[in-house]
């Protein structure tokens, strides 16, 4: 890579000061499985984002590119995580990249330090990969944050610090603009405009990808061959439960029931050992996962939704009978369910399900549990085992990969998940106070109509209570697409939670589904 001074402004030929990001790194590696061996280049570097022709931020990326005669026409996939405030490390060293963090068979976090291994499920098998860290995450920064000009200079008009505020980038629409500019610049820099372009995002990254599916094509001239939404929330309103609506309660219920079955608490599954075993054991013979979930989904959409809508208006005896069925599915005491007319928050569920064992179920993967350190307190005050409990594994993994394996020399902290970015995130498209709907489904529908050849893959983990699978499944059924476009959407539920790919079986199954997806674009 070209030598550059770190995190500083250097003189240009005209004498003006021009910011240069830190020095990147490039190497040639090989990815090998029992069937094949692929030589590829790996590049870790920054692309500058500009405002009024002046640099205002640098975006860090890791690019894995196949080295061969057809490399310029090979599919290329831009990958994002969510948060907002999450770096791309989760998908990078969790499932897609050539090296991955080692987890237990069912996503259990192993004793630290986390170890990297060669990833036989890497997507390099069928696509080049670009892992992108939005501003404020990973090694990406607003220049206000990294400006190291001598005292007095950065206060002058026209300096990077005066051109922007770092929180400018912590906004929904501005974030999409930055990514659009990044992808445009990347395709030009690496001569990849003739390659089929895919975008993939997890969690808020899935919401981001759904919005980008329209924006990239309409505003940046980037045609898309496919979009992949991993554990997304397509309509943000469904994330906020209320005593006065029904959607969040309906959408989270099938995940609660599946979780109760997994932990052998569900009365509904008590006499169905074969089915319960299939939920608890990935790949076990017997019923398919979706077949097991269907009666739960039907109950949630029909009887349970009727209760949630009517409340006290419903006949008391009828209400009692429905609540008994709710208890039968999720094994929470009747009196607790009766008090809220069937409404039970995911926090309450995670604490009550295994309360006698003094265990808390993870919100992001309710199959994972942790001991409650403060069982005598009203609220759970311990660490969520499916988020805080596994962060160190991804942090060790990405830092080992970039700093040791790739030998990238960067003094910045790699921000795996920035709480500051998350808390600062704003909506910058609201037209009126009463314009309250924040969603991405309309953008996805628009994009599919604009580009009927674009394929869509939406997937979830069955034990994810934060962005439950049933939310996306319900929304898909309301998209009102013509038959040719319906055929372009694939939907899959995997064993596991929000990051279902930490489960060995699910990561393998995910790879096989993606292999099919890319072959048929």
Word description of this protein:
By secondary structure, this protein is of the alpha/beta class. It has 17 helices and 16 strands. The strands form 4 sheets. Strands 3, 4, 5, 6, 9, 10, 11, 12, 15 and 16 form a 10-stranded mixed sheet that branches. Strand 4 and strand 5 form a beta hairpin. Helix 1 crosses helix 12, helix 5 packs parallel to helix 14 and helix 8 runs antiparallel to helix 9. The longest helix has 22 residues. The protein is globular. The protein starts with 7 loop residues before the first strand and ends with a helix.
Low-confidence segments, given as residue ranges, are 2-16, 150-163
Mean pLDDT across all amino acids:
86
Largest sheet: 10 strands, mixed
Question: Globular, elongated, flat, extended or rod-shaped: what is the shape?
Answer: globular
Number of discrete helical segments? 17
Give the terminus-to-terminus CA distance. 34 Å
Care to count the β-strands?
Answer: 16
* Alpha-carbon Rg, integer: 24 Å
Percentage of residues in helical conformation: 25-40%
Strand fraction equals: 15-25%
Structural class: alpha/beta
């Amino acid at each position: 890579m070209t030598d550059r001074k770190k995190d500083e402004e250097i003189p240009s030929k005209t004498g003006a000061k021009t910011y240069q990001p830190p020095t990147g790194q490039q190497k040639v590696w090989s990815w090998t499985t029992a069937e094949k061996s692929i030589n590829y280049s790996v590049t870790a570097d920054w692309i500058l984002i500009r405002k009024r022709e002046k640099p205002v931020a640098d975006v860090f990326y890791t690019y894995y590119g196949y080295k061969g005669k057809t490399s310029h026409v090979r599919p290329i996939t831009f990958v994002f995580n969510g948060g907002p405030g999450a770096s791309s490390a989760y998908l990078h060293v969790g499932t897609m990249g050539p090296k991955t963090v080692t987890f237990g068979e069912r996503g259990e976090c192993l004793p630290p330090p986390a170890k990297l291994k060669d990833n036989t499920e890497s997507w390099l098998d069928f696509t080049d990969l670009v892992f992108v860290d939005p501003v404020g995450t990973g090694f990406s920064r607003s220049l206000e944050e990294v400006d190291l000009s001598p005292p007095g200079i950065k206060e002058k008009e026209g300096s990077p610090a005066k051109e922007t505020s770092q929180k400018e980038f912590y906004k929904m629409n501005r974030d999409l603009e930055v990514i659009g500019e990044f992808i445009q610049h990347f395709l030009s820099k690496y001569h990849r405009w003739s390659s089929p372009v895919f975008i993939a995002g997890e969690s808020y990254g899935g919401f981001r990808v759904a919005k980008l599916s329209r924006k990239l094509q309409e505003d940046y001239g980037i045609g898309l061959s496919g979009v992949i939404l991993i554990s997304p929330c397509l309509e943000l309103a469904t994330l906020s439960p209320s005593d006065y609506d029904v959607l969040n309660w309906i959408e989270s219920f099938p995940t609660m029931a599946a979780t109760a079955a997994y932990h052998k608490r569900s009365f509904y599954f008590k006499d169905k050992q074969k089915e319960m075993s299939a939920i608890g054991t990935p790949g076990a013979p017997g019923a398919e996962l979706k077949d097991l979930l269907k009666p739960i989904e039907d109950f949630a959409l029909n009887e349970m939704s009727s209760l949630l809508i009517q409340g006290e208006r419903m006949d008391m005896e009828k209400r009692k009978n429905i609540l008994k069925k709710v208890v039968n599915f999720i094994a929470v005491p009747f009196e607790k369910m009766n008090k809220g007319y069937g409404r039970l928050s995911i926090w309450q569920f995670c604490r009550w399900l295994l309360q006698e064992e003094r265990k808390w179920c993870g919100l992001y993967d309710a199959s994972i549990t942790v001991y409650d350190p403060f069982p005598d307190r009203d609220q759970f005050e311990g660490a969520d085992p499916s988020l805080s409990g596994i962060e160190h594994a991804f942090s060790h993994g990405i830092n080992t990969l970039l700093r040791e394996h790739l030998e990238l020399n960067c003094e910045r902290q790699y921000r795996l998940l920035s709480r500051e970015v998350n808390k600062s995130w704003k909506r910058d498209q609201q037209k009126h106070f009463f314009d309250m709907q924040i969603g991405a489904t309309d953008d996805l529908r628009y994009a599919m109509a604009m580009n009927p050849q674009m394929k869509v893959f939406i997937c979830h983990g069955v034990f994810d209570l934060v962005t439950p699978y049933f939310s996306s499944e319900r929304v898909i059924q309301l998209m009102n697409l013509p038959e040719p476009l319906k055929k372009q959407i694939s939907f899959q539920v995997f064993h596991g939670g929000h990051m279902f790919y930490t489960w060995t079986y699910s990561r393998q199954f995910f790879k096989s589904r993606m292999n099919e997806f890319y072959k048929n674009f």
